[in-house]
Amino acid sequence: MKREFLINISFLILINVLIKPVYIFFIDARVQDTLGSEKYGLYFGLFNFAYILYILTDLGIQNYSSKTIAQNNSLLKEYLPNILGIKIFLSIIYLAVGVAFAFIAGYDLRSIQLFILIAVNLIILSFILYLRTNVSAMGKYRWDSIISVIDKVILIIVLSIFLFTSLKQTFSIYKYIFAQTFAFIVVLGVVLTINFKLIKKVSIKFSIPFAKKLLKLSLPFSLVFLLMTLYMKMDGFMLERMLQTPVQAGIYAAAFRLYEGFNNIGYLFAVLLLPMFASLLQSREKLKNLIHTGHNIMLVISLTATIIAFMYSREIMQFLYPKTFTEEHTILLKILMISFFAISLTYIYGTLLTAAGKIAVFNKIVLVGVIINLVLNLILIPRQGAIGAAIATVFTQYLVLSGQYIAGLKYFGTGFDLNLFLRRAGFFLAIALIIYFVKFHLSTDWILSIVISGIFSIIMAIITGLIKFSDLKK
Asked: In angstroms, rounded to a whole number, what is the distance separating the alpha carbons of residues 101 and 99?
């Protein structure tokens, strides 16, 4: 299982490194810069609002189903048709509740129209993510890896036509949303076809008894998602609503987009690790090895990305947002990337708790994080705007990571290994000094300097033993 994880996470990261950075740095950032902070800020606030309610499209079904199917593949034939029927019903409820809450939140009719379009995209995405969990739970990890980038390839092609041709003059937030809709529909068709082939039939059902039974079992997982969503997405919504202007939300979104883009790496780990952790719960030694392997790889990636982004924040933000760049962009990226290190590791330990059914423990930890984040946002946003929201994010992420890591020590015997801790600390100090030296003492282009730093990071990870050739060879 450890070997399978290494092979698939390597393949997953490889294709995502080839595709997603192109989308984030050259397409999505260009969308934000073209639309401007005010227009994109409104979209960002509405998206976060829609995403907070997004749990209504799923109610924990995705995580529960992934865990269950990974442990018993034969259940897919029964679960897939019935869950598709349930999700169609839940999607209708989501749209109705979302529109009602949008009115309550004080959005005007134009904003509510945008909200509906965003919500439709999230509904399609909800189906895609559920269907992808079936693919990975059935052990088709590389299929899932390929599916994970199809939408980005389509968006790169479609949005490039709008952004880098004469059509740029007529580009609008609506065209951006419709491009996403098109990409999602294509991916939905692909992953739905794969799922039906796995069960060897095309079938969608709605059974009230099955729905009651499933929702009773999956609701604890829905609370996990709701709490995670609140502490990840409430800041963007609160910025746009509390300040009564989308400009600060737009500036925050510019830095948050990179932070969220890096978070995708952590999410990819979680998608692969959830079924793997679930299948190894009865073999503690193998489970412990997989936890340490996942932790080490994630630590190398997150520390390197955090330090590089901190050191080169001005160059990165000026490059991505030449029209709308301000000094605030630089500060926000530095603060948010500090919290990236924490959240990247929560994808390891949060997934472990979820796979083991320690939902109550997980929920208590995240609930504390949500309360702290809400209080800090209420205090800091009126005083410091986007920077205040970023500071709240840092405190929240490290608090949640601490709780999840301690829970991992308690329930899974991961243990505190002094030798491993010293190697991880040595890697941090070494790579920080190397990146500092490369930036301030090598007369090279900043992009080349980042590449050099990345190469040294891999070398140091091997030297410190965080990445071992023996593991890769096996």
From this structure: 5
Task: Indicate the SS3 state at residue 76.
Answer: helix
Buried b (16+ CB within 10 A) or exposed e, 355-373: bbebbebbbebbbbbbebb
In angstroms, rounded to a whole number, what is the distance separating the alpha carbons of residues 62 and 341?
26
* Other Cβ atoms closer than 10 A to 423: 17
- Check: CB of residue 34 under 8 Å from CB of residue 163: yes
Identity at 429, one-letter amino acid code: L
Which pair of structure tokens corresponds to residue 170?
């007529």
Q: Counting beta carbons within 10 angstroms of the beta carbon of residue 200, is it exposed (0 to 12), middle (13 to 18) or buried (19 or more)?
A: exposed
Q: How far apart are CA 393 and CA 380, in angstroms?
A: 11
Helix 109-137 to helix 246-279 angle (10° resolution) is 20
344-391: per-residue pLDDT in tens?
888 888 888 878 878 788 888 888 988 998 999 899 988 888 899 899
Contact 9, 272 (CB under 8 A): yes
User: Side chain identity at 224, as an amino acid letter?
Assistant: V
Interatomic CA distance for residues 463 and 456, integer angstroms = 10
Neighbours of 185 (CB within 10 A): 14
Predicted pLDDT at 250: 82
- Helices 359-384 and 386-412 pack at an angle, to 10 degrees, of 160
Query: Where on the phi/psi map is residue 413: left (φ > 0), alpha (ψ -120 to 50), or beta?
Result: left
List the structure tokens of 6.
């290494």
Phi, psi of 276, deg, nearest 5: -70, -45
Tell me how far apart the alpha carbons of residues 233 and 237 are, in angstroms, rounded to a whole number.
7
Residue type, 77: K
Given the structure tokens 């739905």, which residue do they identify?
A: 192
Give the span between the Cα atoms of 178 and 184, in whole angstroms: 10
pLDDT of residue 472 exceeding 60, the answer is no
Q: What is the pLDDT of residue 75?
A: 73
Contact present, 111 and 46 (Cβ < 8 Å)? yes
* CA–CA separation, 201 and 316 (whole Å): 49
Give me 68's structure tokens.
């269950």
| Residue whose C-alpha is closest to residue 130's, from 230, 221, 48 | 221
- Between the alpha carbon of residue 204 and those of residues 67, 78, 109, 121, 346, the distances in Å are 21, 10, 35, 21, 35
Q: Which of 80-84, 240-244, 413-417, 456-460 has the lowest mean pLDDT?
A: 413-417
- Segment 428-444, tens digit of pLDDT: 999 999 998 988 887 77
Q: Nearest CA to 414 among 423, 405, 422, 424?
A: 405
